[in-house]
Amino acid sequence: MTTALFAVAAVVAVVSAVLVVTSRRIVHAALWLVVTLGAVAGCFGALHAEFVALVQILVYVGAIVVLVLFALMLTKAPTNPLPTLTTARSPFAAAVAGVLALLLGTGVVIAFGKEKIKPVPAGDAETVGTAIFKTWVLPFEVLSVLLLAALIGAIALSQRKSGES
Amino acid sequence: MLEFVVRVVGVLVAFLVAPLVVGQAEHKVMAHMQSRLGPMYAGGFHGWAQLVADGVKFVQKESVTPAAADKRVFEWAPYVAILPYLAALAAIPIAPGIVGADLDSGLFFVLAVMSIGVLGSLMAGWGSGNKYSLVGGLRVAAQLMSYELPFVLSAASVAVAAGSLSLTGIAEAWNPWWLLWQLPGLVVFFIAGLAELQRPPFDMPVADSEVIFGPYTEYTGLRFALFLLAEYTGIVVLSALTAVLFLGGWSGPGPDSLGWLWTLLKTALVALLVIWVRVSFPRLRADQLQKLAWQLLVPVALAQLALTGVGVVLF
């Protein structure tokens, strides 16, 4: 049951991810991204990590995709199909993406190929919180500092006067 | 199996009835606050069937899809707007056990699906092929990005106070002191919730004098009715959530078996407040809207979260 649900969610995620990059209309691409991220949440849910799944929806679908759609509205993106959207470099990009997927895939299989993920309730808020704030607190804090630095950098860039270089 | 059917039917009935009750209350309450009578004829007694008549009218109308519209996006938008609220309604308990689906992370579930609902407005704004719709969609997105943060932060505050993410667990952990302790959170949650629903005074995305009806300008018939229904279901969800999280849900004088009555009463009171606010306040400008969110609501929500943290550790 778990495997079947996971497989369905994974197939939906992959198919919609392909549609994200092949879609002719840029808004459709953003909306297919919603489906992809939702399906990834479905993968988490199928593995009984319900808290992570809900946070995935809240953060990615609720905030990041809204941000993407907002940014699209500020561009000159027309609602009509864009025939020139795909550039001549796309076969090269596809090759790079394929190699990367292969590398990451083999990495995961070599590292965790023999481990079996038990569908125990290991994904509720308490377990996730304990894991992040007890076991992995140092990487978590390092990532926080990185994000904070990016945030301050963005503010500094947006505050720069047009006269300065 | 029988229990499952009862729960599904119960949620569906609540979904179909509660928004109409709120809508009818809005008609009448707003009318009387403005020294009018409101609907008086439909159904006979004080126009009780006005919204039923409206529904029948909407069903009969033609559903027009503009030639310039992005067809699929345009047609899907109303359903994306309304279905999340149905899912949210299913997770909100009225009394212990009286709930569509009691989830361990119920609070996060409701917040997550509510954040999907706004995609409907964005899709409508993008898909309509209309400049007013696009400007309206832009305003929706700008507003939501600002108000999502204080909304989630203030909800997180009660979750910390209760030590639980389950809506039932939060309501059980509630005691009357929370009315004081969590008051800033309550105010922030309510205001940010109003802004999420694009209710006046946060109705800049649908300001009729500026952008006609914002993202919903091109909609007619049943699809338009679905957007309206989504707005009123949103009010029900926000009111019920406020009642369960901040006002103690089913705790109140009287026997425990009447707890559901307290939840409904508190929900109705919050819904009345939503209507009252609409009648009382003028619409906020774009800059006032952002200022309110970032300079007032976010700091207050963060301070509330810190206060809650201190309170939980000390007591």
Automatic annotation (TrEMBL), chain A:
UniProt keyword annotation of Transcription regulation present: no
EC category: translocase
Localization per record: Cell membrane
GO molecular function: NADH dehydrogenase (ubiquinone) activity; quinone binding
InterPro entries, alphabetized: NADH_UbQ/plastoQ_OxRdtase_su6, Nuo/plastoQ_OxRdtase_6_NuoJ
Topology relative to the membrane: Multi-pass membrane protein
Top-rank lineage group of the source organism: Bacteria
Cellular component GO terms held in the UniProt record: plasma membrane
Function: NDH-1 shuttles electrons from NADH, via FMN and iron-sulfur (Fe-S) centers, to quinones in the respiratory chain. Couples the redox reaction to proton translocation (for every two electrons transferred, four hydrogen ions are translocated across the cytoplasmic membrane), and thus conserves the redox energy in a proton gradient.
Protein name: NADH-quinone oxidoreductase subunit J
TrEMBL record, chain B:
Record field: catalytic activity: a quinone + NADH + 5 H(+)(in) = a quinol + NAD(+) + 4 H(+)(out)
Main localisation: membrane
EC number, UniProt record: 7.1.1.-
An individual GO BP term: aerobic respiration
Annotated keywords: Cell membrane, Membrane, NAD, Quinone, Translocase, Transmembrane, Transmembrane helix, Ubiquinone
Cell location: Cell membrane; Membrane
InterPro entries per the UniProt record, alphabetical: NADH_UbQ_OxRdtase_su1/FPO
Gene Ontology MF terms in the entry: NADH dehydrogenase activity; oxidoreductase activity, acting on NAD(P)H, quinone or similar compound as acceptor; quinone binding
Enzyme kind, highest EC tier: translocase
Membrane topology category: Multi-pass membrane protein
Membrane-spanning segments: 6-25, 76-95, 107-128, 149-171, 177-195, 224-247, 259-281, 293-314
Domain of life, per lineage: Bacteria
Cellular component GO terms, alphabetical: plasma membrane
UniProt keyword annotation of Oxidoreductase present: no
Pfam family, one: NADHdh
HAMAP family noted in UniProt: NDH1_NuoH (MF_01350)
Family classification: Belongs to the complex I subunit 1 family.
Oligomer and partners: NDH-1 is composed of 14 different subunits. Subunits NuoA, H, J, K, L, M, N constitute the membrane sector of the complex.
Role, per record: NDH-1 shuttles electrons from NADH, via FMN and iron-sulfur (Fe-S) centers, to quinones in the respiratory chain. The immediate electron acceptor for the enzyme in this species is believed to be ubiquinone. Couples the redox reaction to proton translocation (for every two electrons transferred, four hydrogen ions are translocated across the cytoplasmic membrane), and thus conserves the redox energy in a proton gradient. This subunit may bind ubiquinone.
Protein name per UniProt: NADH-quinone oxidoreductase subunit H
Organism: Kribbella sandramycini
Chain's gene name: nuoH
